[in-house]
Write a structure and sequence with these properties.
Order of helices and strands: HHHHHHHHHHHHHH
CATH class of one domain: Mainly Alpha
CATH architecture of one domain: Alpha Horseshoe
Helix content: over 70%
Shape: elongated
Number of strands: 0
Distance between the termini: 48 Å
Number of helices: 14
Radius of gyration: 23 Å
Structural class: mainly alpha
Oligomer: single chain
Length: about 300
């Protein structure tokens, strides 16, 4: 239904969608079919209210979608799902990027508008196929800021489904990436440091067997922060050093992890009472990294 609103030169129009809905039975608006805590009814009702008056009358009068699916109609809806995943992956990407800039207030307002669509996007991972799999891994890999801040309730179901998919398709690196995302939300949002550390360790068991990468630098940095949150600052510094060994001279793409590791290492050294000596070392290393990135 929401896909009918997607404005593109090809694909279903709202008129096409209403006609299709009139031929397909899928009860959606009757509260008796959903548990009280399930908000899918509200999502569909909100969508209907965004339509023009003519289409609202059609759908509100129906109260449900009559008819039955055939192979052609089902196939058409599956094509629609891929389009939906593509469009709203771009939306979550845009909002996530804006949250790290001066446009963060705009990001919050856009999220408020798009929240039902993004909730549906995360839910669609349960029905994904190999042609839409990469959209969800992209979200896990790069755009989980929105999930951590605003969609914690949906995160467990989403990440568990992603883990099942990585096992189904035999994607060990993708599985490690999901473990990093789970570890992050457990550490930074839920405050479950042990569960977070276990997920980071699961990721490291995969990534350490492969070539040095951004994901490995990130895993060491994240594990270091988790150790710090547990008060284990000596162990934290060791993980930060491992991350820096990869990221200091890694070039473009590694800058964020290098800066985070330097900053976090300074915090851990301060907690250990070594702040003066180690701040000098870190300043020297910062100069090295700035010169390295400048040359690149």
């Amino acid at each position: 239904m929401i896909g009918a609103e997607l404005k593109a030169e090809e694909g279903l129009t709202p008129a096409d969608m209403v006609e299709l809905l009139c031929q397909c039975r899928l009860e959606t608006l009757s509260n008796e079919f959903y548990p009280e805590e399930d908000r899918i009814v509200d999502v569909y009702r909100t969508f209907i209210l965004r339509l023009s008056g003519e289409y609202q009358c059609h759908l509100i009068d129906l109260g449900y979608i009559p008819g039955s699916f055939n192979a052609v109609e089902a196939g058409g809806l599956l094509e629609l799902r891929k389009k939906y995943c593509k469009v709203f992956t771009e939306v979550i990407k845009k909002i996530s990027i804006q949250m790290g800039t001066e446009e963060y207030t705009k990001a919050y307002s856009e999220f408020a508008v798009e929240q039902p669509n993004l909730q549906k996007l995360l839910g669609d991972v349960e029905y994904t196929r190999e042609d839409t799999y990469h959209f969800f891994i992209e979200i896990v890999s790069s755009y989980t800021t929105v999930i951590e801040r605003f969609m914690t309730r949906e995160s467990d179901t989403f990440y568990n489904a992603c883990l099942r998919l990585t096992e189904m398709y035999g994607r060990s690196v993708d599985k490690a990436v999901v473990h990093l995302a789970v570890g992050s939300i457990e550490t930074n949002t839920k405050g479950d440091f042990l569960h977070g550390a276990n997920n980071y360790q699961s990721a490291l068991e995969v990534l350490e067997k492969m070539e040095k990468s951004v994901h490995l630098a990130s895993a060491y940095q994240k594990m270091g922060w988790n150790m710090h949150r547990q008060g284990l600052n000596v162990e934290a510094i060791q993980y930060y050093k491992k991350s820096l060994d990869i990221s200091v001279y890694g070039g473009p793409g590694y800058e964020t992890f290098a800066m985070q590791s330097f900053s976090s290492m300074g915090i851990s050294h301060t907690y250990l009472g070594n702040w003066f000596k180690n701040m000098i070392i870190i300043l020297i290393k910062l100069n090295v990294i700035f010169m390295t990135f400048k040359d690149i």
